[in-house]
Design a protein that fits this description.
Layout (H helix, E strand, L loop, with lengths): L9 H8 L26 H12 L3 E2 H4 L5 H6 L4 E4 L3 E2 L9 E2 L9 H12 L3 E6 L10 H14 L4 E5 L9 H7 L4 E3 L9 H4 L5 H14 L4 E8 L5 H13 L4 E6 L16 H13 L4 E4 L9 H14 L5
Parallel strand pairs: 2-5, 3-4, 5-6, 6-7, 7-8, 8-9, 9-10
Antiparallel strand pairs: 1-2
Helix pairs in contact: 5-6, 6-7, 7-9
Length: 322
């Protein structure tokens, strides 16, 4: 049985994909409000994108995280590639990506990713990964190889990376930034109070420091971070996160509704209505972010190419170099 995105219902796949959650109490999945409903994917362009990715053995966070926007994005040939395999070494309670022991790093993956970018004619590509705490560099080297392969194969493309925290491994962030991605994204995901429940393998202030460090290494790089709401946070806590991100010089903030992947995942505390997202956007712009995307269906990579163009325009409007 499928949901509105065409993805098998989480209750049928949770025990297979998330054995680490098997003993956890079940939380009912509330019915989504009208403003979150999406059409099931199935356009010819969607199928064409799917064929290219399958032929090159590439994983996507669009599929692994059961993104509700997959039909719209793949129709436009926009996909967020998930490097370093589909299995994560952590078990965040919000995430639909499988947890376990990952396989070996695919040395052909950077080349295949570059071929996909070229085949799809992408003007802007987003690369993310699972957490690979088993690797000495946390996977940073594979990010750098992927960036360089794309630069060689599709020099017209701009590149955005959505990176993990690399478990604070020495030199990992420096390796990624040295490869010169156009945008460095690292999501805080939620407010500090909820980290123990939602993101237990991470540390809030390390993530803030990572974003600050990107600017130290390359002041011209755009930085970006994202939050989910509806996890049980208070408005004042969200506003404090905005302040922390601005103190780190973050340019672009995304805020979207948390959607519960299965009954074993963190429950949805509430569905935040569109007017509250508009208010969050107003607050964030007032705090100095160059760009803010805030809506129930906003995700880190949603409309990333168009947003990158807007980021450049906003920076130029303030007289800063690009």
């Amino acid at each position: 049985m499928n949901d509105a995105t065409g993805v098998p219902l989480a209750r049928d796949r949770a025990s297979l994909r998330h054995p680490e959650k098997a003993g956890k109490p079940l939380s009912p999945i509330p019915r989504k409000p009208e403003w979150i409903r999406v059409k099931a994917p199935g356009s010819p362009q969607y199928e064409a994108t799917r064929r290219v990715l399958r032929a090159l053995a590439l994983n996507t966070v669009c599929e692994e995280a059961a993104c509700p926007n997959i039909g719209e994005c793949w129709k436009e040939r926009h996909a967020t590639v998930l490097i370093l395999g589909p299995v994560c070494t952590r078990a965040c309670s919000f995430c639909n990506v499988a947890t376990g022991r990952p396989g070996p790093v695919d040395r052909e993956e950077p080349h295949n990713l570059a071929e996909a970018v070229k085949a799809l004619g992408l003007a802007h590509v987003v690369i993310t990964s699972v957490d690979r705490d088993d690797l000495g560099d946390g996977g940073a080297g594979q990010f750098a190889l992927s960036i360089r392969a794309i630069r060689e194969s599709a020099p017209q493309a701009t590149i955005e990376v959505l990176i993990p925290d690399f478990l604070n491994k020495k030199g990992a962030l420096e390796t990624v930034v040295a490869a010169s991605p156009d945008v460095v994204n690292h999501n805080l995901e939620t407010v500090p109070r909820l980290y123990g429940e939602v993101r237990p393998g991470a540390r809030y202030f390390h993530s803030v420091r990572l974003l600050d460090r990107v600017k130290e290494l390359n002041p011209l790089a755009f930085t970006k971070s994202g939050l989910m709401v509806g996890l049980g946070e208070e408005r004042a806590e969200v506003l404090q996160v905005m302040d922390d991100l601005r103190s780190a010089g973050v340019d672009f903030l995304t805020i979207g509704q948390y959607l519960q992947p299965s009954r074993r995942h963190h429950p949805v505390a509430r569905f935040v209505p569109p007017e509250e997202f508009a208010l969050y956007r107003k607050f964030a712009l007032g705090k100095g972010f160059l760009l803010v995307s805030a809506s129930p269906l906003t995700r880190s990579s949603y409309h990333a190419g168009a947003d990158f163009a807007r980021l450049k325009a906003e920076r130029a409007a303030f007289g800063a170099p690009f």
